[in-house]
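Box 3.1 A note on notation
Throughout this textbook, protein chains are presented in two layers. The first layer is the amino acid sequence; the second is a token string describing backbone geometry. Keep the layers aligned when reading.
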Amino acid sequence: MSVFADSSALVKLYVPEFGHEAVRASAGPLVIAMLARVEVPAALWGKSRSGELPASDAALLVSAFEFDYHGDGQADPIFAIVVVNESIVIAAARHGARHGLRAYDAVQLACAIAARGADPSVDTFAVFDLKLRDAAVTEGFSLLDAD
């Protein structure tokens, strides 16, 4: 089993909030959408602006995420990344209309479906947005249990 994680789940790798234990315990490399490279730092900086995190902590966590995303000369990235291409965008437009999703959530779902198409073991979706959770179940994914 492999897990596709949307950005709401990825943030939990870096911030101890509801569901972080389940995300951190998921087996194998997490499969993620390329757009997480934008969404996760934005969410972490948003927590800083709202007073949930000091700016210095947000900066440290963003650096940790970027290291995990890119790796370096000696360490590989910890994520398998689904590149957003034209076919993903076309599929996202359909999924957004079908499930009533926001744009980036539709892209996340399209990436998860593409990942499962390439590797059928990607059958679990780690997501904490309720509408995207419902869409993932409708599309045949199991959900990462956060209880």
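The two ends are 19 Å apart (CA to CA). The mean pLDDT is 95.
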